[in-house]
Design a protein that fits this description.
The complex is a heterodimer of chains A (about 500) and B (about 300). Chain A has about 500 residues and is of the alpha/beta class. Chain A contains 18 helices and 22 strands. A 7-stranded mixed beta sheet of chain A has the order 16-17-15-14-20-21-22, sandwiched between helices. In chain A, strands 3-2-1-5-13 form a 5-stranded mixed beta sheet, with helices on both faces. In chain A, strands 4-7 form a two-stranded antiparallel sheet. In chain A, a hairpin with a 3-residue loop joins β14 and β15. In chain A, α14 crosses α17. Chain B has 2 domains: about 180 residues, Sandwich (Jelly Rolls); about 110 residues, Homeodomain-like (Arc Repressor Mutant, subunit A, Orthogonal Bundle). In chain B, a hairpin with a 4-residue loop joins β8 and β9. Chain B is of the alpha+beta class and about 300 residues long. Chain B is elongated, with a radius of gyration of 24 Å. Classes of the chains: A alpha/beta (about 500), B alpha+beta (about 300). Chains A and B meet through β3, α1, α9 and α11 of A and α4 and α7 of B.
Chain lengths: ~500, ~300
């Protein structure tokens, strides 16, 4: 059987899925690696461990597949998280760990760039909101605060480029990943001079940019031999997790949106135009020439409920976290929509879209004498989805959203998907069977290999929801009233967020 | 209710127990100006609070303890009262002297019926966590009360029973240690701790049993949970960490391959090279920074 391998280098793990040419999943393996926080605002990953994990998991998946002599690997497609920065020296040796998307050390640099005369121009040119996550700000931080490392740096690459370099010996970056750096012009598809000036670097510090379908780089001969792959195996550059998850859930037309709910979350739409938000709240990432994935990310999704349950869950004897989580969800299910007047602002980790305020903090509002722990569980989950809804609202000022494709770790829990349908008041599609990021990569790979004429045809032929949920109108009406309060509280607390964050910083 | 203070080599009651440095039940009611007990603790000390509350400083960290709390003080730690705190209450204290207790090993001695391999594990758990306060740990109080009765009654068989009770105190504390640590945690947090402990002890000859005990899990559950979360078996995850660290050392230092092998817990440089090749497809030499070796 002819097979395509998709490798997603995610935040917590690499996930590798083999697909046949019809887009059917044939094998799956994952391997995790940790994130280090040597200081409060720092989030780092070890590039060697990431690469070794990719290699180990790939080898063990291939060994399994090669037990069937008829299996032939025709190509490998890559995807990864966005925004990581890894300085390397001339020999390609990493200069320390990679700064990943969650790294917040560059918040002052980001603030400075955002408020400068060039801030708006750079946002409009690069599509990436100016924030500590952006490699633009991270490189500026390294230059200002770690001059020695900056001096030694030959190139600033991402974890994905590091892995691709280990596979091919080339320094190349796809348009999607480049468009999440704040350094890349999403219209001209070239590195943006204004950004380069601000970071203090030039084009030579960055990889060569290529379309996501690029397959010119060749697998290193000794690696091919060790993996028992043919030297002709196509190495397809691929895209980012966000772009892949969007097309991987079938979103490729007006009126559709993808909502991802993992530890963090995002709302995304596909379009042939960018969403040029005057308040710089939305990102616009490049899928291909004149094809954009736009939307907004939230810091506070699954991680907030994990926090709630581990702090306040009723851990009965012998019950572990997962069981306690299910119990809590079960309790929340028996509370009516709106948690009988309890509203939760989920900003435990500050917030990105739509308010972009790292000082924002959480709050429960409306507590009365009748509220029980189960009301708090429900309010917590509703608060997380209200926040996603608030991102959806901003997108809707530019684009209609008629239906939603839901993806992420919560997809298997009907409670969440029902809430998404009711709060958004829209139809929700889901597919339980496959990781949407890897499926998106398969679509890109199969298109490159000519199995489909173009990406749109691939999306329409392969991605089919296996479950559809309709919103309950009366619930949506009630949630609209609650959302109004949610949104007003978020606005009103702006000053108090700053004050409390200052006290918390000590 | 009796108050007493027994000391090794001084009190007849402890003559049969050379491994007990002191055993006491004290009532304290005073404003502390400078507490006498600021010597380094010679063994493993257990203090169980019966009444009142105390503000103590262990190695510069302040703790406040209440009735039914158990405090463990590890060898060489210094326990002090917080200056000018009003300490008021009663507590049991027992200090046992293991034959050997360091980063590598814990050996209680012949009196204990805990198997040697488990003693080793218990030592590892204590030292890795260094947890001082076990809240609301009533069972420790019950055990100490029984020890007191046995030691003063000296009925037939009391020696065996006291030693057995000390074993019990140690084992229950160990279990509580790993359980308390991990039960409320979301598995990713537990995994994070697992990752950190391995990372800090890469050269240690780890066994799955040790790993399981540290997370307060059985070996089967450990295997299942680590595999489900990380995609690796516990031992393969360890190898993964060792190989990643080796690559960094190969690229960034001039340490010889043999030395790296030993530092990373491999038996020999052959064992290192073969594992390395199996995992990565390359020999360790490939990652040495010299450009010509890259042509291999």
């Amino acid at each position: 059987m002819e097979l395509l391998i998709t490798i997603d280098i995610g935040t917590t793990a690499v996930r590798i899925v083999a697909f046949d040419f019809k887009g059917e999943k044939k094998a799956y393996k994952k391997g995790s690696y940790p994130t280090f926080h040597p200081q409060p605002d720092f989030s780092e990953q070890d590039p060697e461990q990431v690469f070794i994990t990719v290699l180990f998991i790939l080898k063990s998946l291939l060994n399994e597949l090669f037990e069937d002599k008829k299996n032939k690997i025709k190509g490998i497609v890559f995807s990864s998280s966005m925004h990581s920065v890894l300085p390397i020296d001339k020999n390609g040796t990493p200069l320390g760990n990679a700064l990943i998307w969650a790294d917040n050390r560059a918040k002052k640099e980001a603030e400075k760039i955002k408020n400068s005369a060039l801030g708006k121009i750079i946002y409009e040119a690069t599509g990436t909101p100016i924030h500590a996550m952006s490699p633009l700000a991270k490189i500026a931080w390294i230059r200002e605060n770690d001059a020695e490392r900056f001096q030694k740096t030959y190139k600033f690459i991402s974890l994905k480029e590091y892995v691709v370099h280990q596979f091919t010996n080339e320094y190349i970056i796809d348009y999607s990943l480049a468009s999440a750096t704040g350094l890349f012009n999403i219209r001209t598809l070239k590195w943006e001079q204004n950004s380069l000036d601000i970071s203090g670097i030039n084009e030579n510090y960055l990889s060569e940019t290529c379309p996501i379908y690029n397959s010119e780089a060749k697998l290193k001969p000794n690696l091919a031999k060790s993996l028992r792959l043919s030297a002709n195996t196509k190495i397809i550059l691929g895209s980012t997790d966000g772009c892949m998850a969007t097309i991987g859930t079938g979103v490729f037309a007006e009126g559709q949106a993808t909502i991802s709910i993992n530890s963090s979350g995002a709302v995304r739409v596909f379009g042939e135009e960018v969403l040029n938000d005057s308040n710089q709240r939305l990102f616009n990432y490049v899928l291909d020439k004149n094809q954009y994935i736009s939307g907004g990310p939230t810091n506070n999704a699954g991680v907030v409920l994990d926090w709630f349950v581990s702090q306040f869950g009723s851990f009965q004897h012998g019950k572990d976290f997962e069981e306690t989580m299910l119990n809590s969800l079960n309790e929340a299910l028996h509370v009516s929509p709106g948690a009988e007047g309890l509203i939760f602002l989920p900003y435990l980790l500050g917030e990105r879209a739509p308010i972009w305020n790292s000082n924002a903090r959480g709050a429960y509002f409306g507590i009365n004498i009748k509220h029980e722990p189960r009301h708090f569980v429900r309010a917590t989950i509703e608060g997380i989805i209200f926040e996603l809804f608030s991102i959806g609202k901003v997108i809707e000022t530019y684009r209609n959203i008629n239906e939603i494709s839901l993806t992420g770790t919560v997809v298997t829990l009907p409670f969440w998907s029902n809430l998404v349908a009711d709060i958004f008041g829209k139809k929700v599609n889901m597919n339980h069977s496959v990781n949407s990021i890897n499926l998106g990569s398969a679509l890109v790979g199969l298109t490159e290999m000519g199995v489909y004429a173009n990406i749109e045809e691939a999306v329409k032929s392969i991605v089919k929801p296996d479950r559809i949920i309709e919103p309950k109108v009366h619930h949506h009406e009630l949630y609209t009233k609650y959302y109004r309060i949610f949104s007003q509280l978020t606005q009103k607390f702006k000053e108090e967020f700053d004050l409390i964050a200052e006290l918390q910083a000590g | 209710m009796r108050f007493f203070a027994l000391n090794k080599d001084k009190s007849d009651e402890l003559r049969a127990f050379h491994h007990v440095f002191e055993f006491s039940r004290k009532k304290v009611q005073s404003v502390q100006t400078n507490w006498a007990d600021c010597k380094k603790n010679p063994g493993l000390r257990f203090i169980f609070i019966q009444e009142g509350n105390f503000e103590w400083v262990i190695d510069n960290k302040t703790i406040t303890v209440f009735p039914n709390d158990l405090v463990i003080i590890y060898p060489n730690q210094v326990l002090q009262s917080k200056m000018e705190a009003f300490d008021n209450g009663t507590y049991y204290s027992i200090t046992i002297l293991p034959k050997l207790f360091n980063e590598e090993k814990l050996v209680f001695g012949d009196w204990s019926s805990i198997p040697a391999t488990e003693q080793l594990l218990i030592g590892k758990l204590f030292l890795l966590n260094r947890k001082s306060v076990f809240q609301n740990f009533k069972i420790a109080g019950e055990i100490l009360k029984k020890i007191e009765l046995e030691i003063f009654a000296t009925e037939i068989g009391f020696k065996a029973i006291v030693n057995h009770l000390i074993d019990e105190l140690v084992v229950y504390s160990t279990r509580q240690l790993s359980r308390e640590e991990n039960q409320r945690k979301h598995f990713p947090q537990t995994f994070h701790k697992f990752d950190q402990i391995l990372r800090e002890n890469l050269s240690h000859p780890w066994t799955v049993e040790e790993m399981a005990a540290i997370l307060g899990l059985g070996t089967t559950t450990l295997n299942e949970k680590i595999r489900a979360y990380s995609g690796f078996s516990p031992l393969n995850y360890l190898i993964n960490l060792r190989i990643s660290e080796s690559i960094r050392l190969l690229k960034n230092t001039d340490i010889s391959i043999t030395d790296i092998a030993f530092e990373m817990g491999f038996y020999s440089s052959q064992h290192f090279s073969s594992t390395f090749k199996k995992m990565t497809g390359y020999s360790p030499r490939y990652f040495r920074k010299t450009p010509e070796s890259k042509e291999e």
